[in-house]
Structure formats: C-alpha cells, structure tokens
Amino acid sequence: MTLALRTERPLDWATTQNNLGNALGTLGERESGTARLEEAVAAYRDALKEQTRERVPLDWAMTQNNLGTALRTLGARESGTARLEEAVAAYRDALKEWTRERVPLYWATTQNNLGNALQALGERESSTAKLEEAIAAFREALKERTRERVPLQWAGGFGGEGVVLMLLAERRGDAAMAKTALTQINEAFETMRDGGDAPNAEYYEQQLSRARALVARLRGR
C-alpha cells in the first residue's frame, strides 16, 4: 500500500513520511535509546525523495528543518560530531528556501535551531569557531523572534546566546563577556519562569548557577 501511495500520490506519501518522522522524533526524545531517532531520520530522508526543492521548495525546507532537529537530538546522544555536522547542513539547506523575506518566523526558528546545533558542535571542538557561528545564528533569529512578538521564543534565543557567551568567556578568561552572559541567562530564566515554561526555566536556572560561578572566578583573578 505504501508503494502504491508513493506511485499514485507521491506528495501525499512524502507528507505522511514527514508526519511519521515527527511522531518518531517525539517518541525518540522521550526514550533513552536512539532507535526511534534513527527511524525518524530515515523517514525524513524518504520524504525528501519526493519533496524536492524544485517541486515543493517550502515543504522541502520544512522537512530539512525537521531532519536537522532529529539529527541534532541523535548527535547529542552519540560521541563524535558527524550527526551534528549533518544537522547543521540540513538547517542551512532549509534556510535556502525558508528565507527571512518569505517566512520570517520559520526562518528565525531555523536560525535558532542552527544556533543550538552549532553550540553542541562547538562544545566538542577545541576551536571557538562554531561557538562564534552559534552566537551569530542566535542573533539572526532574534531579529524576528522579538520580545514583544514571541516573548518565550525570544527568551530561548537570548538565553541560548547567553549560554554560548558563557562558554566562550570561560575559554577566553573574559570577565566582561561572562557578565554579559550572566545578564542574558538571568533574563531568559525570569521570562521563562514568569511565562509558565517550567522546563526551560529550570534549564536556565541551572545555567545561571554556572554563569554566576564563572563571573566570580574570573573576577577573582
């Protein structure tokens, strides 16, 4: 039946594959193993066989973004950087069609996702290049994910940038950058807390403790 659907209605088949990937990705995030995430990646790659950039550019970009997220989650659970590098490539592909002019909030979402993937890569590399790229991606996202328009999404990006600034400050021994990071993380925490986003508020509260300790250590030099 699946083969028949692809033959008769290829774009419907691709949409179903994308939806399957979404469901598998959600399951995979809740499970400790990686099997579901591997299946999600396979489903998205199948969808892209019919959802080509030439045929349906915006759907192609959507599936590339979804593929990037599944790869990023998978990469966070595995050693090495291959999956994270694939995630970065998928997000960058998505941005070729999900442009700021065409779909500003989708563009911003993908920029934010790209920032997260670059951060994860940067944490595993001795160079600071990926961390600097992550900051740039978060700042791009914040051009559309403004505090006035989407306060919780703004907090996620502003706080995400703050966390990367903290990582950079630690590597460079930069007290001023650490203080900036602390301020941003604190604002993200307060916004998430006041907005009722308990899981993210908890995450930023943990990062806040790290940032405070870093500021104190660098000031004491």
What does this structure look like?
By secondary structure, the chain is an all-alpha fold. It is 80% helix and 0% strand. Helix 5 packs antiparallel against helix 6 and helix 8 runs antiparallel to helix 9 (175-194). The longest helix has 22 residues, at 151-172. The mean pLDDT is 96.
Discrete helix count: 10
Q: Taking Cα atoms only, what radius of gyration do you get, to the nearest Å? A: 19 Å
Main sheet properties: none
Helix content: over 70%
What is the ordering of alpha helices and beta strands? HHHHHHHHHH
What percentage of the residues does DSSP assign to strands (E)? under 5%
Low-confidence stretches: none
Note the overall shape: elongated
Measured between the Cα atoms of the first and last residue, the distance is 68 Å
How many beta strands in the DSSP annotation? Answer: 0
Average pLDDT level: 96
Structural class: mainly alpha
Structure, briefly:
This protein has about 220 residues and is an all-alpha fold. The chain has helices spanning about 1-10, 10-30, 35-50, 55-75, 80-95, 105-125, 130-140, 150-170, 175-195, 200-220. It is built from ten helices and no strands.
